Amino acid sequence: MSNTITTQTLIYSSYPEGLVKESDFTYNAALEIDSTLQADEILVELLHLSVDPYMRGRMSKNVPKGYFPAFEIGKPINGGGVAKVLKSNHENFKEGDVLLGYFDWQKIQKVKISGEAFLKNYVKIDASIPLPLSYYLGVLGMPGMTAYFGFLDICQPKEGEVVVVSAASGAVGSLVGQLAKIKGCKVIGISGSTENVQHLKDLGFDEIINYKDFNNDTNALKEAIEKAALPKTGVDCYFDNVGGFVLDAVTLSMNRYGRISCCGSISEYNGQKDLGPRLNSVYVVRELKIQGFIVGSFYHRLDEGVKAMTKWVLEGKLKVLESKVAGLENIPKALIKLFTGDKVGKMIIDV
């Protein structure tokens, strides 16, 4: 009896130049794999996949030192996903378990899980919690933990302070803004789409600024931010997802002892010139704290973050925005939308 099964996969086939293109990937709708399991292997079927801006940083020959390794040409990309166990030869998992973990962009696949360190990358989802499985890739997954630890730990917001969030309609930014409201802050969202204004208002953002209206004019954007902060003077906390002139404009609006959490630099991911940070005198004179972070550094506190975010979702204090795309073959379209602003909230692939 043959143990060969046919599945679908998406292969990363060339390094992007500038914005990701569909031609950078190759879709195979009839990949044959052997489903026979060796020791510590499981066979899974993907249900949902996550695509995130950080992935563009790994689609390069020259990944920054200390970051995740580059994706390999000729292989599927590996990223966050939710999958159902079809067969198991591992003592910790059984048929029917639903797992949150790291999976290749392949509908059915074998995963070898050996050693305690590797085992921590695969977590059984508690079926008793009445929330959609896709939430474990967003608010209860890496984006949610990025928002929780990157904002609350680094910015340490206080009631009544003014918080600015860039890429506010994204998976992380939309959550940071809501966390700031939970902490009693005034929240200014910076986005690149007028279509997302109402979505952000519905999440509780007090003011929304479209950075595209300012044509890279740092001083004009600074004035708009300070006007939006009124009757407060200036900005106390900034959660930065984009870098570039937006980071410069917010920095110039910061109050003394302000805190800046640097999560990402979307404006630079697709080959644009590095624009900062470079306002050293402002950091010194205003005694600003500016800190970058990788969310994995907080994973020893993962239970804390998941429990807190789950509680706020169930209480209705955190609303979840998702944009969904169906099919592995359409992942490149979803990746492009991450950088063009043609989506809102967490981008999810329904496999």
TrEMBL record:
Keywords: Oxidoreductase
Any one GO molecular function term: oxidoreductase activity, acting on the CH-CH group of donors, NAD or NADP as acceptor
Signal peptide interval: none
Pfam families: ADH_N_2 (PF16884), ADH_zinc_N (PF00107)
Segments forming domain Alcohol dehydrogenase-like C-terminal: 171-307
Domain Oxidoreductase N-terminal: 11-111
Name of the protein: Predicted protein
